[in-house]
Amino acid sequence: MNRLRVLATTIRNEGTVNVVRVFYSLRKTLASEPALLDIELDKTLRDPFSVAETVAIRYLLPRLIAKGGWGTTGRGTVLTVSKDSIAQLVTQERKNRELIEYGYPLLSRYIQATVEVSTQGAWLPSPSERLSMQVIRVNADDYRGVDTVETLIGHVVISRHAIERYEVYAGTKDMGAAWKSLVRRLNHPDIRQIPLPEKVIAHKLRKYGRVPEIWRHPTDEVNLLFSPHNSYKQLLTVFTDKQKTTL
After folding, report:
1. pLDDT interval class at 240 (50, 70, 90)
2. 245 inside domain
3. This prediction's pTM
4. How far apart are alpha carbons 186 and 149 in whole angstroms?
5. pLDDT on residue 32
6. Residue 241: pLDDT above 50?
7. Are residues 94 and 181 located together in one domain of the fold?
8. 189 and 122: one domain?
9. Do 195 and 182 contact (CB within 8 A), yes or no?
């Protein structure tokens, strides 16, 4: 069983942003060596401590999974947080828009993780020990409203709107099932880019400096609309042949 424990402790004002300090530990025992992150947040957030712990999880989990031994969907993983609102997000007992915006992968790709709540802080380092600890700074805006995945068509950033639209297409309220289905679709060998009319290409180049891409399967009615960038494609929305979208 893999365990990731996070605990937001303090918040400080740094001009245009607030910074929340989050300690984390990767082992079950109290003898583990904690590390820490500084999460940079928008000052307008109503629940900065919950958002900070959520962003810390999102920052850490992909790195742990990449090292191996951690389930890609959260299977066999226990996440210990200090805020009830994060656990309520996962169980969908309460819809917190801020947490959904920053933490919806906990409802999708990491849906099989177990979330526990504990405010116990005996594992935290002493004030003197903290002075020599390395601090990694994380900008929460990098995690707002998006999720990322490696696919056959390259590195894809998936917007929350896109996964929500795909849920509608898939006919499910289970975001985890929708996520898995979408990822399978993006990795299907038959997925192809659909050419756009020359007028659309010229218009988009004038307006945005880039042209959107539409990808789909030859025998399918589901269209995936992307905005291409240098190192990734951003999936903006999903629509079917029967629906209209503005190109």
Report:
1. confident
2. no
3. 0.77
4. 9
5. 54
6. yes
7. no
8. no
9. no
Q: Which of 93, 111, 143 is the last residue of a domain?
A: 143
Residues 6+ apart with CB under 8 A from 109: 72, 73, 74, 147, 149, 176, 179, 183
Q: What is the rounded CA–CA span in Å between residue 203 and residue 211?
A: 9
pLDDT at position 171: 86
What pLDDT is recorded for position 173? 76
The whole-angstrom separation of Cα 208 and Cα 214 is 16
Which tens digits make up the pLDDT trace of 70-95?
888 888 899 999 999 999 988 877 77
135-156 per-position pLDDT tens digit:
999 999 999 987 888 899 999 9
> Mean per-residue pLDDT for 85-107?
85
Region of residue 6 (left: phi > 0; alpha: psi -120 to 50; beta: else): beta
Task: Give the domain extent around 38.
Answer: 2-143
Instruction: Write the CATH number for 59.
Output: 3.30.420
In a domain, 246, yes or no: no
Show the tokens assigned to 43: 């000052």
- Could you tell me if 109 and 191 lie in one domain? no
CATH of the domain at 216: 3.30.2310
Contacts of residue 49, defined as CB under 8 A and 6 or more positions apart, other chains included, come to 8, 11, 20, 82, 83
Indicate if the pLDDT at residue 31 is higher than 60.
no
